[in-house]
Amino acid sequence: MWAAQFYGFEEPRRWINSGGLxxxxxxxxxxxxIKLAKPDSDVFCITGEGSIQMCIQELSxxxxxxxxxxxxxxxxxxLGMVRQWQELDYQGRYSHSYMDALPDFVKLAEAYGHxxxxxxxxxxxxxxxxxxxxxxxxxxxxxxxxxxxxNVWPMVQAGKGITEMLLxxxxx
Length: 172
Hints:
Blueprint: H1 2-6, H2 27-37, E1 44-48, H3 49-52, H4 58-64, E2 70-75, H5 80-89, H6 105-111, E3 115-119, H7 122-134, E4 140-145
């Protein structure tokens, strides 16, 4: 959701997603398909740590078919959209949205024969992205630690119309 709002696309047909339909796990398979169709392009999968785990085994397919995609996992240690709904609609009564048993994604990527990079602070982002781009023929997994309480805006609550969209916390 953040990438859709903030990434500056310079050409058409450079973005594919599930359209906000809650389809977790599709990012890596989408990225692999795009890389196979456009092998000379840099292909990035921007995902969350919960979503990437839905198809994490596709790291094996990336190795087998030499599909060097770049994975940017925005890791807030929550199922972020679920946590946001629970915060706003259920007064912060969180249930099954936190991730207390996450793998070490850097080691996991390396176990599949890929490159894993940990990004823990904003100043690490640009060097990690440059390194990922430099490694043209390698799948690179960036485990980007983010604020677990950050929400994604705008959003439309269940049962509400698009004209009732919440643009930020001030609309609550």
